[in-house]
Amino acid sequence: TITSDVAKGDNSIDVTSNATYVAVTERSYLTLVSETLWDPVGSTSNRYGGEFVKVMVKSAASFTLQGMVRGTYPIADNARLYAVNFITDAKVSDLTITQTGPKGTFANIGAGVLVSKAMDCSVSNIIVHSFDGQGVGIAHAIRTSVEGCSFRDLTDNGVAIGYGVVVGGMSEHTAITGNH
To answer: Which of 28, 63, 128, 156 has the fewest CB atoms within 10 Å of its CB?
Structure first.
């Protein structure tokens, strides 16, 4: 449980002991979130702010972080930390993805390949074509690479974004190279 507001630029977070605290070890990643809108000015988005933080030192009443917090997380907006169980070292390669039905008919198909809650994962040498959605989606991931992939004839139908690679949702250290 967070015991005081976390401000942009802070490099530590005050906490009390609970199940998340007990499970945290030094060099663990946690997700820091609150119910503050990510972009509250003129946005139609209902997404909340959040980011990964890496614990470098665990003491009796705080976590010292690697680097600084990038956002602001007030207790009044339900600021909280939670542990992330990452999939690690997964690799997706050498496959072709296409949809069986006509393009423009699937409103919520999502991504051909979705890398989510993942660390040190890669996507390489895949082909996604004739598809209602994005080729590769990356969300809540750390150190992910997308390399040597081909994306063509993807449909943006307003819900399923038709782009090659979409990176979002608290992703960090993403490399996208040699795709077309």
So the answer is: 156
